[in-house]
Structure formats: structure tokens, C-alpha cells
Design goal:
Helix content is 40%, strand content 17%. With 163 residues, it is of the alpha+beta class.
């Protein structure tokens, strides 16, 4: 959880207090897709080996590296997360796009698994806190818990840090 918390903080530039208030309903994950040239070439070779003629990719599309169609040759999933953040000082909401869709999806699946193991799979829903405590009905952690986690990490690696 701390790794995901740190990753989201870095990519959204949100304050810790804003992140602790995030709920799953505040996140929209969208597959914007992209074209991988190596995957595209591999798929073309596979189709041609089956006797299927493939149009020259320059004639077939003008995606400029982005694959809008899920059926596009060479398309790979690329998940972007749109994070709706409420600023506590101003009260305004801001939507922040970030390339953390895969990470948030992986974390959501991790949360589901943890809650299933605790025998409370129904606790995770759209209004659940993203960074809630799974051992305490997904209620908010105290901010100091994240500070303690940070200190543990720094102490564990301090001999490897350059000054």
C-alpha cells in the first residue's frame, strides 16, 4: 500500500491528506492504447504466414503511435488514470491524468484479495477509501502511519544512500 501511495503522490503531486481522502469512485482508468512496432511486426508476420495479405501499415492507419482501435495491429494496453482530487484549502476539485492505471488496477486487485482473506470481501466498493486500512473496515489510516513507514524504509536503506 505504501508503495502505491508514494507512486500516486509522485505522479499526481497531491498532498498526503488529499490522497488519504481518495475513494475508488474518484478514479477513472482508461485504456488509451499505443502501437508497439515490434508487436505490430510480429503480428504482421504471423498473419502473412497464414496466407493473409496485410496492407502497408502507412496505408492502413495514421495513429502516430496511438492505437485507438482494440483490433489495431501492434496495439498494447496503456492505462491512464484520471484522479479527481479535492483540495482541502480551496474546496475545488481537479482532475489529474497520470500514467498509473496499471498500478492502481494491480493495487485494487491486491485489496480485493486481502479483504477476501480477512473474510470481508464486501467492504471494497466504489466509496471505499483507496488507502484505507483493510484490518479496520477500510477506515482511514492516521497520517502518522505513513510517516512511520517512510522512516522504516529510510532506516533500512540508509547505508546505501549517497549524501
Amino acid at each position: 500500500m505504501f508503495w502505491t501511495f508514494t507512486l500516486v503522490a509522485k505522479n499526481t503531486e497531491c498532498k498526503p491528506k488529499e490522497l488519504l481522502a481518495l475513494r475508488w469512485e474518484d478514479i477513472e482508468i482508461v485504456d488509451v492504447g499505443r502501437i508497439s512496432k515490434s508487436k505490430e511486426q510480429s503480428e504482421i508476420e504471423g498473419l502473412e504466414a497464414e496466407g493473409i495479405d496485410v496492407l502497408d501499415t502507412n496505408e492502413a492507419s495514421d495513429y502516430q503511435g496511438w492505437g485507438k482501435s482494440e483490433k489495431a495491429l501492434g496495439r498494447v494496453e496503456r492505462l491512464t488514470a484520471y484522479v479527481l482530487v479535492r483540495n482541502f484549502k480551496t474546496g475545488k476539485q481537479q482532475e489529474i491524468p497520470a500514467n498509473i492505471g496499471n498500478d492502481l488496477r494491480r493495487f485494487h486487485n491486491y485489496q480485493k484479495q486481502c479483504l477476501k482473506e480477512y473474510g470481508q470481501p464486501n467492504l471494497l466498493n466504489t466509496i471505499s477509501l483507496i488507502f484505507g486500512n483493510p484490518r479496520n473496515e477500510i477506515r482511514a489510516y492516521n497520517y502518522s502511519a505513513f510517516g512511520k513507514s517512510w522512516n522504516k524504509i529510510i532506516n533500512a536503506i540508509k547505508d546505501n544512500l549517497k549524501t
